[in-house]
Known about the structure:
Blueprint: H1 3-27, H2 36-56, H3 59-80
Amino acid sequence: MNWQTVAIEAAGWIGAVLVLAGYGLASAGRLDGRSPTFQWLNLVGAAGFVINTAWHGAIPSMVLNIIWCGIALFTLWKLRR
């Protein structure tokens, strides 16, 4: 396994941990779903998924996570105002 494959797999796993952490913390009431922290967890996590799924050719998952990133970016932009 070369360094590029390891980096892409790491991006996917880190993305999964970040999205699950955000969801778990929000579900437990420890994090507000509209908080910047929640949105950043989703943005960075979904970006990791985009990298991983693009590499593996999983286009439906990649598109879903691009939209997920867009929602997080839009919410972060709205929260700045």
